[in-house]
Sequence to fold (435 residues):
Amino acid sequence: NKNKELKGKTRSVTDMKGRTFEVVDPIQRIALLGGPTGQIAFILGVQDNLCAVTNTLKMSSLVREMYPKIKDLPGPRTTSGSINIEELIKSNPDIAVAGDIDGNIVLEKTRIPAALLSDSMGAGLVDIKKEIRRSFYYATGQMKSLIYEGVYQGKEAVLKLYNDPRLTDDPVAQNNFNEKNKSKILLAPQVFRYEVVSPQSGWLIMEKVAGERMLQSPLPPEKRANFLKLYLEYRKNFPSKPTRLLFLAENLPAVEFNHYRIARWLQLANDKEAEITLKEGKPVLAAKKFTPLFEKSISIIRKEFARRKMVWCHGLFSPYKIMKKDGHYYLFDFGHTKLYPEGYELAFIIWADWVMSANWQLSYRKWREGIFEWLKEFEKINKKLKIRNFKSLMRASLVERIMGAILADICATDRPRKEKEKRISLLYKLLDELL
Fold:
């Protein structure tokens, strides 16, 4: 194969087979012809650059729901080794991405530059068995992670592909924890191989914890004490100082860091509310009710966090990030490891285990019980944490989490309107009580 004549700026590309060739720069049109490449395109946020895909990807109900434009793209590849060359050429790709069989057909019968996938990810993942999980960034339609089960060098493993709009160094943070962790109770899966592609994206292959059982939220009251023992074990063994250079925002004082995060959530909610108003004529958040609560919340956050420090932490420590096996507990998902304001982690536990996990159809009286039960449990362990002015800090930290829940986790999502309104009603009553 002699690649088609390239016009304009070009650059060299090396594929997973070690082949180096020239492509146009930037690449604008991509043909994906097999393997998990379709999902990867959505993870990396380049779906609008697709000009041809496999029929399998076109027929995926999830992909069609997430990206309706997929139905209009050519589907020149039906099964392995079966490619409609004329249709592929008409799609005019700058590059085709394919496995060995399909890639070699493209190379033999066209002049389209082709990047070949190897049979493994990182020399050893010889078998991807099945997809086990995918997650999205609020309601933007952008997939932020995709997880597969597989085999790496003869060992059961998990392949995680990630592309989070927020800055992350997931595998590096997990390795740092494993290197410094001395706990015999709380562990993290071993990372076999990884690559950080950008400040937001990359992949890692890690140990699969066989027979795993994830802790379920909301935790029954009798299991909260044991969970908090794990939390203390985690704080005892997690690095107390940053293990990498800080991102720019992490250098901010605690109060300004909170303002920075809340501003991002407000933008997400603002955009979604504008979309809803255009469609339905009425936003979910009534400005007359929300604005005074928002202003009071900001005032409390500003006052409390002006005197608080930033703390290096996992960022997502909660029941659903922990799995149990043979008397050991495994902590997962280190993608949000960074500096956070003091008090954030405890409020996050309440947010994760109760605010977003408890039955939102409960009466406020019943719903609030779970929050204040957690606060009582935290007061018990504060004898060991020794956080000064603990009640004042928890009040402000909860207010920050409530703002995050209303703006990002509820308003910026595609939850049904009825559910949004009920959840917001509960949180408004909680804010009234805290403020």
